């Protein structure tokens, strides 16, 4: 093999993945790895799904690519129809892209163009939350609140303000009910909108269950409903980023369905293509699409590979598997077992502070001290050590965190394929 690839890290070398078998990845030496995190919550069907492979072969035999400036395609049309049929109320249109960051970028630009089209050109500000991740392209990175990822690019990032996340384990006061806590942190949005000037705010962006930066931290009951009310009061668009927590990961096709909230836009990716193809989507309320349709008639955005027929064919097959095999029920059942197993095996461990999540999206927060909740010293590089140790033992998990730049907590994220067996 040549040595010209420019990967994530310039240090060390990685094993070569040569095969996939259900919940396992296999490297060139024949070593098997149980994919306990689906990579980064991607491989929701495991690695050799027969239906997706057949759908890809079939589409390849028809047509692989037809530029969306000239054509639509059957798989893209079908995918949009299926997503709308199962989406929260009011979602009527689907914009297909190649991944999560692209979906978030599209949501920001569509929000801006929407307000221009309806005659509110002063709206351009975005509010998001600390300890969030919305992607690595510049607009998405500016939206995310992860200081470590943002720091070196800060001069290039458009100004975005960040309110508190909904992070019960860390922030709820002892004498505060869960509901009161949720309303208190949600009301930070009201205060921030007032501070910036309600007429200038375009959108609020949040993950319903925070993934990479916090480790499967769900919003507490009532939080997102209050957020929805505040957005409505001020005409601010609510964009929910379900790139990691969507597509059945929590046991509902869209995580926000469990919270009973219908956002103005939803971003999805990861589980949509389940790793078989790179694909993401922006789902949009009908009235936002209509404003563009009745106005300029043109969303001033686009990527060469948007609406790719092969990617859409894979996503159709993935959704077919999730819906027809009732994998959402399975996610809830296996998720409850995983949660119980984590609690019985790790719940009393002196360095386990919290176990949380929904469905097959679970996080274990590690602390130096359970009583004070003091995080580990980042110099100990705990997450890197856990990742390496697990990998050496044939388990893929997704540890993140550290106490770098105010990001509190080390955690291990688990997001196994929906087909995971009890024994695995
Ligand atoms: N949004 C969320 C919530 C994510 O977790 C991620 C990726 O981890 C992204 C956006 C970016 O997606 P991608 O890596 O496909 O660009």
From TrEMBL:
One of its GO terms (cellular component) is cytosol. This is Aspartate aminotransferase family protein. The keyword Transferase applies. SUPFAM superfamilies: PLP-dependent transferases. Belongs to the class-III pyridoxal-phosphate-dependent aminotransferase family. Its cofactor is pyridoxal 5'-phosphate. Pfam families: Aminotran_3 (PF00202). GO terms for molecular function: pyridoxal phosphate binding; transaminase activity. Gene3D superfamilies: Aspartate Aminotransferase, domain 1 (3.90.1150.10), Type I PLP-dependent aspartate aminotransferase-like (Major domain) (3.40.640.10). Keywords: Aminotransferase, Pyridoxal phosphate, Transferase. The keyword Metal-binding does not apply.
């Amino acid at each position: 093999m040549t040595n010209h690839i420019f990967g994530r890290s310039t240090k060390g070398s990685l094993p070569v993945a040569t095969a996939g078998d259900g919940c396992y990845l296999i490297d060139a030496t024949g070593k098997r790895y149980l994919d306990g995190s689906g990579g980064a919550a991607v491989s929701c069907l495991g690695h050799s799904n027969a239906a997706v492979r057949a759908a890809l072969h079939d589409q390849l035999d028809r047509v692989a690519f037809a530029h969306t400036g000239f054509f639509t395609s059957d798989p893209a049309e079908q995918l949009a129809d299926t997503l709308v049929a199962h989406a929260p109320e009011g979602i009527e249109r689907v914009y297909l892209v190649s991944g999560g960051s692209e979906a978030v970028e599209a949501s920001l630009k569509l929000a801006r163009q929407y307000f221009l089209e309806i005659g509110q050109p002063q709206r351009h500000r975005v509010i998001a939350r600390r300890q969030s991740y919305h992607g690595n392209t510049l607009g998405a990175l500016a939206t995310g609140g992860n200081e470590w990822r943002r720091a070196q690019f800060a001069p290039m990032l458009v100004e975005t303000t960040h309110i508190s996340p909904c992070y019960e384990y860390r922030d709820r006061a002892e004498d505060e009910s869960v509901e009161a806590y949720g309303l208190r942190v949600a009301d930070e949005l009201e205060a921030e909108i007032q501070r910036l000037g309600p007429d200038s705010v375009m959108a609020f962006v949040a993950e319903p269950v925070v993934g990479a930066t916090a480790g499967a931290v769900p919003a507490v009951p009532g939080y997102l409903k209050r957020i929805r009310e505040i957005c409505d009061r001020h005409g601010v668009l609510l964009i929910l980023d379900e790139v990691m927590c969507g597509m059945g990961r929590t046991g509902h096709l869209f995580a926000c369905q469990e919270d009973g909230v219908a956002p103005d836009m939803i971003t999805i990716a990861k589980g949509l293509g389940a790793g078989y193809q790179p694909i993401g989507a922006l789902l949009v309320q009908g009235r936002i699409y209509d404003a563009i349709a009745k106005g300029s008639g043109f969303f001033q955005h686009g990527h060469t590979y948007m609406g790719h027929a092969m990617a859409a064919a894979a996503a159709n097959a993935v959704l077919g598997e999730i819906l027809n095999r009732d994998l959402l029920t399975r996610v809830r059942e296996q998720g409850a077992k995983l949660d119980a197993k984590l609690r019985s095996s790790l719940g009393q461990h002196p360095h386990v502070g919290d176990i949380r999540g929904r469905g097959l999206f679970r996080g274990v927060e590690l602390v130096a001290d359970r009583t004070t909740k003091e995080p580990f010293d980042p110099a100990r590089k705990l997450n890197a050590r856990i990742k390496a140790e697990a990998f050496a033992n044939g388990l893929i998990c997704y540890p993140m965190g550290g106490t770098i730049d105010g990001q509190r907590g080390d955690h291990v994220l688990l997001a196994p394929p929906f087909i995971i067996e009890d024994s695995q």
